[in-house]
Amino acid sequence: MKPIKEVENGDYNENQRKITKTYMMILVFCLLISLFGGSLLGWWLHKYHSTNRQLWMVPFSLILFLTPLIIWFSLLISQLCISKSDEELEDGSHMSQLIQIHPKR
After folding, report:
1. pTM score
2. What domain of life is recorded for the organism (predicted)?
3. What is the DSSP letter of 57?
4. Is the torsion defined by CA of 84, 15, 79, 4 positive or negative?
5. Is residue 1 a contact partner of residue 21, using CB atoms and an 8 Å limit?
6. Where are the beta strands (DSSP E) in 1-105?
7. 24-57 pLDDT, tens per residue?
8. What whole-number distance in Å separates Cα of residue 24 and Cα of residue 75?
């Protein structure tokens, strides 16, 4: 994630703060789900692996363990790949700089 930028009056940019807060909430939620999936897999390994019972727990726990990590990683990579010009386009503040009117020849 990009660092939070300061605006002219010293306050933090609210949009960046909301994005950062959202990504951190997603990270915590993903980590909790992954911990639950890893714990479920460990419990299956301890209790049922020797008898090969309750095999449904293995793919279920692997899905719970890996999917949130993949989702958060993809969000992190996508945020890092957004260029500064793309952010300016989303704000709409620099749209006038991109539109140039050429006189007819």
Report:
1. 0.60
2. Eukaryota
3. H
4. positive
5. no
6. none
7. 888 888 899 999 999 999 999 999 999 999 999 9
8. 11
